[in-house]
Amino acid sequence: MEVASLVLPVFAIIVTGWLAGALGYLSRSLADALVHFAYNVAMPALLIVTIAQEPARNLLEWRFLLAFGGGSLLCFALVFVAVRAGGKHDLASSTIYGMTAAMTNTGFVALPILHAIYGQPAVLPAAVATVFVAAVMFPITVILLERRDARGSPAHAAGLVRQILLNPMVLSTLIGLVWAITGLPIPAPVAAYLNMIAAALTPCALFAIGLGLSVAGLRSNLTASFALTAVKLVIMPLIVYGLCVVCGLNPLYTVAAVVCAAVPTAKTVYVLAHEHKVEEKLVAATVSITTMLSIGTLLVALYLLSGLATDTR
Fold first, then answer.
1. Helix extents (H) in the chain
2. Predicted TM-score (pTM) of this structure
């Protein structure tokens, strides 16, 4: 019930956005403005305040990073290579396919679930997973998406480097990492300011997904979306669990790693897809489907890990 109560409101916001567009209450074109705000303002604020407030030593839990991070990158690579080998998708499209199957919603789903069930000790691994997604998965996505505009002259290559470094997600991640390394606390007013802006990310991004989602678009991408959903909610948690066993990760961190892998696709993949105009309908459909089905898969994962869970108390 704790899992359902946390995941259902997320899906409800998507449905609310879809109803607003389907009934004509709001224009679907407003989804663009919401996504631009989420991408350029709310997400950078979240990344800075999340990363900067975490002690640098806590960001280097190598066995956890190897299990969760390795599983994330492996799933991305498997889907990316499979889609690219098909010959029907370019680099940007293949990147979005891969990240839709591998980029996980740790901050807004996994972290509150782990905190609700296992308390404060489970927050740290979820925070580390969130930082990994921000510091590794986001930049990889941006680099691969931006490369399509960098073919040709050296000027284009220089422009790519500039675009990557000035990308809101990459830049905010770098700022957060530098701040974390200094060990300085964020002044309370600044932290409050960033948290207020960051709090707008979830409703804006989820509502925009629903507002821009049409039944025709959902149906047209149904097969691909369910295939990506199977990778995200079944294959990725199994890979991560296997890596946890190989690494000898302790019970709490094993549970945290699997839960972080078993939550829905991150809504920020849709933000990236929309910003770069690549596979938007596919991502919107997959975020919606993984959000809905993750209620069941998370309950199964938590039940199967219940033996480990007793060791974390």
1. 2-22, 30-37, 43-52, 62-64, 70-85, 91-102, 111-118, 123-132, 138-146, 154-166, 168-182, 188-198, 201-211, 215-220, 222-230, 236-247, 251-262, 267-276, 280-304, 306-309
2. 0.74
